[in-house]
């Protein structure tokens, strides 16, 4: 079918989703001489990476990164790509004293990577961190579902697993934050110890997750979305914005499966050959693409937004129902100056179990689309904070002004009363975005990873999966998205 409103085009590969994973897949395929079309639901590329602005009371617009921004040293594929694309990075400001707020609400200053907790709590935290380091090493990031103790570790919640090894609640709260509210953005009783071990293994170790100087090391000048914007420039007119894919025709139904007695039409319930090229047709709002393979580069919680024709095999249909997004609000507060630095503070604050459990100096550097000067830091100071899982729900239920005051006051617990007076304030609301529906990323419910993980990046017929949420190294991060995009492209190049 061809019509002027929705033309049909032919390409070697159709890529669904123009986040870093989809764009990297298309970029790799195009460099290898394949023709591609990238269909993106939104009117922009970048997915969960997003350069934004917020208007200040000073009459200026201030640059913010609404989505993903930091790169850590283990994220080597992203680091190489950033260089390849001619982009620059800058380090996070981290000089001075950090703040810890204990469960009683008392504020403590500290330096180094050890929280100023009681010696006994410190010992318990070390014990839990060592334990998680060894579990992460045991299961690895590549196939955690195949580990000998996979089913056992997947049957206990992260919270209960930690509680099996200590009864020090402060130690449990402080250690669980590194995976629960800090990464998967789900309460620690809702996901398994295996899922937590995958998170740690994907970052190199649990100790790396604990070390904020490691995990939140660098940012891209001009914002992380620049990676996607630059990849999209290379792809030019092969990227179609405002084109949500509604339907994917991907296989020929097997006539032997039809059941006239029960009025069941033919489908693929007896299985398909996976990872082989074959005709696919992706129907989007603006264009229809005929291709030989599809890269499905959307987060797994959105697979069900597409009508697969015929329906996907039963194990995929079941597995996808056990993968869900976390929920976190990224808080941006811009100030006349980075006032905390004048007080010798780094801007870093921690408090396991608190409304805002992490705060960092997020002052911009260099040129960005809201302004800035190359080679110079912004004179305005920016703080970033995070409100996770059940706290995020509680905050969204409040009227806007009350929400703002509650969040700022929780940040002021770390950095003092001046925190209450930002010149600009913005909350990233990825859960309200139709084409994301949560933040930061997806994970399995209890028991899901050991049961269905093996399916997540195995192709289904000519459909190849690519997303940070199914990555090994760089799991849930832009690095993982880039790796998965490249891996899907390579698999297609090698496929029959
Ligand atoms: C608030 C926040 C903070 C984060 N912080 C960090 C960080 O500091 N460092 C880091 O490395 N990572 C961070 N992340 C995670 C990081 O942004 C993601 O891991 C990364 O963007 C995933 O890339 P992706 O291409 O796999 O998926 P996405 O970025 O989600 O891209 C998927 C794309 O598919 C599109 N799409 C969906 N459905 C359809 C459809 N039916 N048809 C067509 N298009 C469709 C979407 O619009 C989207 O553009 C953060 C994420 C959030 C939300």
Automatic annotation (TrEMBL):
Cofactor or coenzyme needed: FAD
Positions of the Amine oxidase domain: 21-493
Single annotated GO MF: putrescine oxidase activity
Superkingdom assignment: Bacteria
Keywords: Oxidoreductase
Enzyme class, spelled out: oxidoreductase
Gene3D superfamilies associated with the record: FAD/NAD(P)-binding domain (3.50.50.60)
Record PANTHER family: AMINE OXIDASE, AMINE OXIDASE [FLAVIN-CONTAINING] B
Entry protein name: Putrescine oxidase
Organism: Pseudoglutamicibacter albus
Taxonomic classification: Bacteria, Bacillati, Actinomycetota, Actinomycetes, Micrococcales
């Amino acid at each position: 079918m061809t019509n002027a409103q929705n033309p049909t085009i032919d390409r070697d590969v159709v890529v669904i989703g123009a986040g870093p994973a989809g764009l990297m897949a298309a970029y790799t395929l195009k460099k290898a001489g394949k023709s591609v079309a990238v269909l993106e639901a939104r009117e922009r590329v970048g997915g969960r990476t997003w350069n934004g602005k917020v208007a200040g009371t000073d009459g200026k617009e201030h640059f913010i990164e609404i989505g993903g921004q930091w790169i850590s040293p283990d994220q080597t594929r992203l680091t190489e790509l950033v260089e390849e694309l001619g982009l620059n990075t800058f380090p996070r400001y981290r000089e001075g004293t950090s703040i810890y707020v204990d469960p009683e609400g008392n504020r403590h200053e500290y330096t180094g990577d050890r929280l100023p907790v009681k010696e006994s709590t410190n010992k318990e935290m070390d014990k839990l961190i060592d334990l998680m380091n060894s579990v992460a090493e045991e299961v690895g990031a590549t196939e955690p579902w195949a580990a000998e103790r996979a089913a056992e570790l997947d049957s206990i919640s992260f919270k209960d697993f930690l509680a099996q090894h200590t009864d020090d609640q402060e130690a449990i709260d402080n250690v669980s934050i590194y995976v629960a509210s800090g990464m998967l953005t789900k309460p620690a009783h809702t996901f398994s110890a295996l899922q937590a071990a995958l998170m740690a293994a994907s970052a190199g170790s649990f100790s790396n997750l604990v070390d904020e100087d490691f995990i939140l090391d660098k940012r891209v000048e001009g914002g992380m979305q620049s990676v996607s914007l630059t990849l999209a420039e290379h792809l030019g007119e092969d990227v179609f914005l405002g084109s949500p894919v509604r339907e994917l025709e991907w296989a020929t139904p097997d006539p032997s499966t039809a059941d006239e007695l029960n009025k069941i039409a033919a489908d693929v319930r007896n299985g398909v050959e996976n990872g082989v090229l074959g005709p696919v047709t992706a129907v989007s709002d603006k264009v229809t693409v005929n291709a030989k393979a599809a890269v499905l580069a959307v987060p797994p919680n959105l697979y069900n937004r597409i009508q697969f024709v015929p329906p996907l095999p039963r194990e995929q249909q079941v597995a996808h129902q056990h993968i869900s997004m976390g929920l976190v609000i990224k808080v941006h507060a811009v100030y006349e100056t980075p006032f905390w630095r004048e007080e010798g503070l780094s801007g870093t604050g921690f408090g396991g179990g608190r409304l805002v459990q992490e705060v960092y100096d997020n002052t911009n550097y260099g040129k960005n689309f809201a302004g800035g000067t190359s080679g110079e830091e912004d004179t305005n100071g920016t703080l970033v904070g995070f409100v996770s899982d059940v706290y995020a729900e509680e905050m969204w239920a409040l009227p806007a002004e009350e929400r703002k005051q509650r969040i700022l006051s929780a940040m002021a617990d770390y950095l003092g009363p001046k925190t209450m007076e930002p010149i600009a304030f913005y909350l990233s609301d990825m859960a309200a975005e139709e084409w994301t529906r949560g933040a930061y990323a997806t994970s399995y419910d209890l028991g899901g990873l050991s049961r269905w993980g093996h399916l997540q990046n195995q192709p289904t017929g000519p459909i190849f999966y690519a997303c940070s949420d199914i990555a090994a190294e760089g799991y849930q991060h832009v690095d993982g998205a880039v790796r998965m995009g490249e891996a899907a492209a390579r698999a297609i190049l090698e496929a029959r």
